[in-house]
Amino acid sequence: MTFKSTSGPMLAGLIDEPEGEVRGWGVFSHGFTLGKDCPAASRICKQLAAEGVGMLRFDNLGLGDSEGDWGNGSFTHKVADTVEATRFMADRGTPAELLIGHSFGGAAVLAAAPDAVGVDAVVTVAAPFEPAHVEHNYDSVLARVMEDGHADWMAGGKSLTLRKEFVDDVRRADLRQRIMQLKLPLLVMHSPTDTTVGIENASDIFNTARHPRSFVALEGSDHLLTKKGQAQRAARIISAWAHQYLID
Q1: What is the CATH number of the domain that holds 89?
Q2: How far apart are CA 145 and CA 4, in angstroms?
Q3: Residue 245, exposed/middle/buried by CB under 10 A (0-12, 13-18, 19+)?
Q4: pLDDT value at position 155?
Q5: Is residue 103, in this structure, part of any structural domain at all?
Q6: 122 and 109 in contact (C-beta within 8 Å)?
Q7: 3-state helix/strand/coil string of 8-39
């Protein structure tokens, strides 16, 4: 299915329909340049669907099957389009009580949650406390971007255009106030051995948040949750934790 992004192009998504009794619905925000079909997104959403929680996962601007140019997006766009995804779910009669984000998507759901439609609980998986943490992904072209205004950049086998506007936007992003004002139950999940986004990020998010808040260590997991059973385990934990916040 598709829905319109806040900047105009259509975003492509799919819904993993809940099996058996419907317990609730959610929206999943993927990592930096990963897309809706990456292991973390697809496996977590499929496992949640198997446990009765239907999930929308979608490609951000210019990624996967979505229209537009990734280079015209920003963290602000990602946040706004996450809010739009919750509005889409509400409009179709399946409001998303659960908002889940992995990595950069975890930062996005923290920023989006106060404006999201129908959301009752938020989950972050391997999320950075500061969105600008993603700079390590493109540090090889950063100087050229800041000097020329843009540069071509390879990410996961894809050729993308990184623009100075994106860098400036992500550097301005500050999650501290958003987290402090969340007023929603928060589950923070992170691996102590995550070498991409360190465990200290989870500590910063958790310590900034107010109760009700929970933390689960995904010991043995890598950042992308690619090893066998890791994403499914995370989903089962999310399912159990979120049970009281889902529809009756």
Answers
A1: 3.40.50.1820
A2: 29
A3: middle
A4: 83
A5: yes
A6: yes
A7: CCEEEEEEECCCCCCCEEEEEECCCCCCCCCH
Structure tokens given for 172: 């301005």
Domain span including residue 127 = 2-242
pLDDT band at 75 (very low <50, low <70, confident <90, very high): very high
3-state DSSP call for residue 124? strand
> Hunting for tokens 């990456």 — which residue is that?
38
Cα–Cα distance for residue pair 112/95, rounded to 1 Å: 15
Which parts of 121-224 are beta strand (E)? 121-125, 150-155, 158-163, 186-190, 213-217
Do the domain assignments include residue 247? no
Q: Which tokens belong to 210? A: 């107010």
Identify whether the C-beta of residue 118 lies closer than 8 Å to the C-beta of residue 90: yes
Nearest of 82, 90, 94 to residue 54 by alpha carbon: 94
Number of independent structural domains in the chain = 1
Name the pTM for this structure.
Answer: 0.96
Q: What integer pLDDT is reported at residue 173 of this predicted model? A: 96
Q: Does residue 61 lie in a domain region?
A: yes
In angstroms, rounded to a whole number, what is the distance separating the alpha carbons of residues 186 and 141?
35
CA neighbor of 221 nearest in space, from 180, 246, 192: 192
The angle that helices 75-91 and 104-112 make with each other, rounded to 10 degrees, is 60
Q: What is the pLDDT of residues 29-66, one digit of tens each?
A: 999 999 999 999 999 999 999 999 999 999 999 999 99
In sequence order, what are the residues at sequence separation of 6 or more whose Cβ sits closer than 8 angstroms to the Cβ of residue 94?
A: 25, 54
CB atoms within 10 A of CB 248: 4
